[in-house]
Specification:
By secondary structure, the chain is of the alpha/beta class. Helices cover 37% and strands 22% of the residues. The strands form two sheets. The chain has an eight-stranded mixed beta sheet, sandwiched between helices. Helix 12 runs parallel beside helix 13 and helix 16 packs across helix 17. The model has no long low-confidence stretch (mean pLDDT 88).
Length: 428
């Protein structure tokens, strides 16, 4: 364990900024009204405004260490701004806040606590959508001190889709492959060690949105824990994007199509949820082609197949399908997958589909299928594998941790690849 993990956590608040002086003043004044106990600094990152932001006098007098840094205006670069703020800061816990947020009471401390206690956890706070236009920080501080924000401020509806997600996942404590959508960087905390391990936000994302979901999805497949902390309450100026125009959300989804594999995405990107590696040495070319056809029929949109040592005649047919390759999957593609299957025997694709169902429906970390005296298919959830690897030193420990933390189901199958009928597999 790193020495920094045993020390008392310290908190750096990182705020991306662009031409939002009024919003920044309000946020800073509410932050200084009740400074977090473990706060060591606030880092404001200007994303190329015409004039740099200034720090309100009352905040400067409060003794809070505030640093303002700038990056050139090369488009909307929230990801790069947050990364720059993280590199500049010194806290062991990073709290990311947007300029249009304002903490209620000890929200920053509450948000930072889980990341300080569990360096393997990303935590998101609760946004309360209100109309703060024209309300200065001093006026808002009085409203917060009186505890009357629910009556004195115009409120917007909370996004129902987000409430449903938190309810379904028990505040992200039981995450699924869609839980990344509940991690919002407008009020988010993460340990520095974990942030660095994940590589931070993707700085190639330029334009509104997607950088937090991309980071959260990578965290999910890396085996990171999530938490939604309802008591870390922040006022958010304006409604959720569901109540605004759709233009920015369209841009966000275009950012994500090349970074997060969709389950039934009609526009298939370079990624797949299910990766299948088949060692087909000794298989006939008919068997290889038939296996590929039947497998991809059962996993039509979200699977990719690599065939190792395929017969050249079979590969001459398969190589034209973009879902099939003859080399190991790229590391980034593996890291963004949800499930990995290794096929070593001539198993029925129907049995393979049931094995995947065992991973997804029954929520196992690993399912191993045996034929006779050998492993036919080893199927593992990428999230389970990566968490075990991060917590262990040997392959034996990896297997044991997958079993203890996620569950390892071992099954016997007696069906093998059926008789090949390419007239059925490749009808013309």
């Amino acid at each position: 364990m790193d020495a920094s993990d045993t020390a008392t956590p310290t908190v750096s608040v990182i705020i991306p900024y662009y031409e939002q002086q009024f919003d920044l003043d309000r946020l800073m004044q509410t932050l200084s009204r009740r400074p977090p106990g473990r706060l060591v600094e606030i880092v404001i990152v200007d994303d190329g405004s015409a004039a740099p932001p200034t720090v309100p006098d009352e905040v400067a007098r409060s003794g809070i260490d505030v640093t303002v840094i700038r990056q050139p205006d090369l488009g909307f670069r929230a990801a790069a701004a947050r990364n720059l703020g993280a590199r500049t800061s010194s806290g062991t816990v990073l709290v990311f806040l947007d300029c249009d947020m304002c903490p209620i009471d000890d929200a920053v401390d509450v948000l930072a606590q889980r990341a300080g206690e569990s360096p393997n956890c990303m935590t998101v706070g609760r946004r309360i959508h209100v109309d703060l236009d024209g309300i200065a920080g001093t006026a808002l501080a009085e409203i917060l001190d009186a505890g009357s924000y629910r009556t004195d401020l115009v409120q917007f509806d909370d996004p129902q889709w987000l409430a449903d997600l938190y309810r379904r996942t028990h505040d992200l404590s039981r995450p699924d492959e869609r839980s990344y959508q509940g991690v919002i960087s407008a009020c988010m905390s993460i340990s520095r060690r974990l942030f660095d391990e994940l590589g931070g936000f993707d700085e190639t994302i330029v334009g509104y949105g997607g950088e937090d979901w991309d980071l959260a999805y990578r965290a999910y497949t890396a085996g990171v824990e999530f938490a939604h902390e309802p008591m870390a309450r922040f006022l958010h100026n304006g409604p959720d994007w569901a109540g605004r125009t759709s233009g920015p959300k369209n841009t966000e989804h275009l950012h994500l199509v090349d970074r997060i594999p969709g389950e039934r995405d009609p526009l298939r990107g370079r990624l797949s949820q299910i990766l299948i590696t088949a060692n087909v040495s000794g298989w006939s070319h008919d068997q290889v082609v038939h296996f590929a056809c039947e497998t991809l029929t059962r996993f039509p949109h979200n699977a990719a197949l690599t065939v190792i040592d395929a017969d050249p005649r079979a590969w001459s047919v398969l190589r034209h399908d973009s879902r099939i390759c003859d080399a190991r999957f790229d590391e980034d593609i593996v890291g963004r997958s949800l499930y990995q299957l290794t096929v070593n025997r001539r198993i029925s694709p129907a049995d393979m589909a049931s094995i995947v169902d065992g991973l997804t429906v029954d929520d196992f970390g690993r399912v191993t299928a045996w034929i006779d005296d050998g492993i036919a298919v080893d199927a593992v959830a990428t999230r389970a594998l990566n968490r075990a690897r991060r917590l262990s030193d040997t392959d034996v420990q990896v297997d044991d941790l997958i079993d203890r933390v996620f569950g390892w189901r071992k099954v016997w199958v007696d069906s093998v690849l059926p008789s090949v009928d390419l007239a059925r597999s490749l009808p013309r």
